[in-house]
Each structure stands twice: as C-alpha cells, then as structure tokens.
Amino acid sequence: MEFTANWSYPTAVRFGVGRIAEIADAARAAGMTRPLLVTDAGLATMDITRRALRLMADAGMAVEVFAEVRPNPVEANLSAGIEVYREGGHDGVIAFGGGSALDVGKLIAFMAGQVLPVWDFEDVGDNWTRADAGAIAPIVAVPTTAGTGSEVGRAGVVTHEATHTKKVIFHPRMMPAVVICDPELTVGMPARLTAGTGMDALAHALEAYCAPGFHPMAEGIAVEGIRLASGALARAVEDGADITARAHMMAAAAMGATAFQKGLGAIHALSHPVGALYDTHHGLTNAVFMPYVLAFNRPAIEGRIARLAAFIGLAEPGFDGFMQFVLDLRARIGVPHTLAGLGVDGARAGEIADMAVIDPTAPGNPVPLTVEAARRIFASALAGRDLN
Q1: Can you tell me the distance from the alpha carbon of 380 to that of 120, in angstroms, rounded to the nearest whole number?
Q2: Domain limits for position 276
Q3: pLDDT for 334-347, tens place per residue?
Q4: Is the dihedral of CA 236, 158, 75, 53 positive or negative?
C-alpha cells in the first residue's frame, strides 16, 4: 500500500514519505516569506532539520531557527520565542518537532501579536474571544514524533512556573494552515521516545472514545486510531525503520488529537500535574496511569470497551481482554508498571489530587473525578494495585 494522500480534515494535511520536500511550498501557501522555525535544541542540529532549512533556503526563504524549548515547555521558552519572532520581523511560524516544539511554535504565532498575557487565554469558558484574531500569525506544522497530534490541534500546553501547573491555551486560529506528516522523519526516534509518544497517541484516542457526550465523528476517528496504534506501536518500537508502522502511528497521532475535541479524562488530568511537578515525560506518564484509570472508570465504560475490544480484533473479548492488551503492550514496549518507575514518589500526592480535579481535562472523565478519587488512582498507580 502506498502511504500518500492529501487530507483537508481537520486542516490541510500533506501525508506521505518524502513530503518534507514540500516545506517551502507549504510555507508559501500559508502566506510566509520570512518564517521562524521553532524546534528543540536536540533536533536543531539533526540532519532532518538541516535538510528542511536547506530546502527553504534553496527556495529563497529567509528562515531563522528558535530552539529554546524544554521537553515540558515553560513561559520563559514562550517569551524568548516571541522576542526572537518580533525582532526578526517574521511573518509566520514553522513548528518543527515533537509535541513541545509544536506547542511552543503555535503559541509564539498566537502570542506575538497579542497585548494581554498568555494566561488570559487559558482554555476556560470563552477566554479565547479576548484575543486579537487578526494578529495571529500563520503556522505550518511538521511533526517529527507520533504522539501528541498537536499538528492538528487548536491549542498549546505550557507550564505556569509560578504555580507549577500546566495550562492549555486555546484559539481556533492556532490550527496550523498546512501540516506535513512525513513518516520518514520519525524513523530516527529512539525506542523509548517512540514508546512514550505512541502511548500518548493511544491515550488521546482512548479517552476521547470513553468521554461522555454525543460526538460520533470523534468516536469513529478514535476507534480507528486505536486500531492502528494497537497493531503498529510495538512494531515501531522494536523496528524503528518499519515505515508502515511509522506511518500508521503518525496517522494515529493525528487521529487521537482530532478525536479529543470530544474530551479527555483522568489519565490526562493526573498526568498533567505529575509532569509539571516531577518533569516526567508526558506520554510515559499517561501510559503508567492508563490501566488504573480504566479500572476506576470500568462501571461507566465496560460495554463501550467491550465493543472496542471486538473492533480492534483482540483474541480475548470484553473489558478484561482490553485491560490485558494494555498491560501486555506496556510491558512489551518498556513502560514502567508504576509511577515509581518514572521517579515519582508519594510526597506530593495531595497536591497532585487537588490539581487534577481542576485540570481542564477532568470534566471529560466518564466517572466524576473527585479529590478522593484522584488520590485513590494516584495511590494505585504508585503501588501497582487495584486493577480488578
């Protein structure tokens, strides 16, 4: 099968091996002549980035690189990027990299023309309407991992350092105008990063599928994304050059992010404060929490999960079969069974529970997430118990 296509949902997506060659054309299509390429320090010196820069230079584009992006981005990264953008007279952003680089790139494009502080646009109520929409710069997104799906999202996540909380900043015009999904760019990802980002994609699709409310389009995208990830993630971890597995995971990542407009839940609500306080990898933190949140939500999702297990073709049907699939997948790709495996202890359990219940993803959980429930799930994930 040839993995080449042009998609226009939820935005223009140029999907296929080798399509990075179209980066200059994509930037022009978005209205850019002087783009700022936003990436992270590790990626900035890699061959795939150098090639992208060379392609744009050969096309006559004046491009500058901003690479001060942490794995869990903070406001200081954003502020530094906005300064570079303004001083360089740039007219758009190419967000290039994993979820952190994509989020910071999108936020730079969003905030460079605003006068209010970024926290005024947190994804609460209609805060997004405070923004000057006409001052938002165009964005081209080029993911080099298959996880967050931020390339097809209308929001970015940044940590508020003063409160150690992750904040979701939203505006409809933060959706990239053009996305280049080239699975070949992910071939060099280390196995552990492939595992963590892939479990993030799976968590997005799974929580979207389980979230209450009526959104059959999102649910359909979610279940197919789960099916793709269930067959491809372990293969991509074990053989990073398996381009079919890489393509399926890149598609699953975009599908998860498209689906979660329906909602997320306690996996993310708990993962966000743990990541903010312990600087853990977001996808791996989601992966650790996944079975414990499934067990907590079981009374509300058992029938739904049974249908999902049948759809993705598990040999053992029902909720128990899906739970075993999750546990087996985590073990196969090296995800720790407990939070202790990520260097997390119980010293801040109460603080994490308090932060989880006010996280913007918490309302999407199919069982109401109270402080007591959040503490119980955290304790289970720390000790590795209460899965039945």
Answers
A1: 35
A2: 189-383
A3: 999 999 999 999 99
A4: positive
